[in-house]
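in:
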């Protein structure tokens, strides 16, 4: 994956030969499994490098050393697996509601010999019951509105930890809409880091919400309420 190496170097993300090999094997497994299981609509190698691998690792410096990270709605492993490859010190837990995707994530984890990396089949609100305030960082690259996402993420984060949320445009509008949810769930807006990826003509906003207080036990609400009736 010479293209991946060149792109990552351009964005000052260092990779050794073993990490390059892991990205190469991950890509091969993704494309092969995608023939029978719909993991991604993006299959061109250069597009995968830009829109999945590079995009996933943009906030890698925001995560403290040896942080425990939970990725909600991990899908094909983005952003969790690229973050783990770039930052092997992280402990990573991937949560997804579709068992076929979890099986794929486990296969990749085993094949790449990624230690302290786990794939869990669960809905986010069910997972929260036994994992409240357990993680240093919660990440999501999902398409849900911010007030919905935060109800899934913040209950999982220790006080003092952070939620790292990948968004494209209209983030300011969503942030305004989510003010009440941030406050109720024990969060505080920290910052937005903006990235421009010229190869894919992409703009990526990384939102960081700090956990400053315990989340009330009633959150996340069951039966899909975070989506059907978000906090407003």
């Amino acid at each position: 994956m010479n293209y991946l190496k060149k792109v990552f170097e351009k964005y000052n993300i260092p990779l050794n030969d073993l990490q390059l090999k892991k990205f190469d094997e991950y890509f091969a497994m993704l494309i092969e499994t995608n023939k029978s299981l719909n993991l991604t609509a993006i299959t061109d190698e250069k597009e995968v490098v830009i829109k999945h691998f590079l995009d996933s690792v943009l906030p890698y410096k925001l995560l403290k050393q040896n942080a425990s990270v939970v990725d909600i709605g991990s899908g094909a492993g983005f952003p969790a697996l690229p973050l783990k490859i770039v930052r092997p010190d992280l402990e990573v837990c991937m949560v997804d509601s579709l068992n076929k995707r979890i099986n794929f994530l486990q296969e990749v984890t085993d094949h790449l010999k990624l230690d302290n990396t786990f794939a869990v089949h669960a809905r986010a609100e069910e997972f929260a019951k036994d994992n409240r305030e357990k993680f240093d960082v919660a990440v999501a690259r999902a398409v849900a509105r911010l007030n919905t996402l935060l109800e899934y993420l913040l209950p999982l984060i220790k006080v003092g930890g952070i939620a790292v949320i990948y968004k494209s445009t209209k983030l300011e509008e969503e942030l305004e809409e989510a003010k009440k949810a941030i406050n109720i769930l024990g969060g505080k807006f920290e910052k937005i880091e903006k990235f421009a990826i010229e190869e894919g003509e992409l703009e990526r906003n990384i939102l960081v919400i700090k956990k400053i207080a315990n989340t009330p036990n009633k959150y996340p609400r069951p039966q899909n309420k975070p989506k059907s009736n978000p906090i407003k």
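note: The two ends are 45 Å apart (CA to CA).
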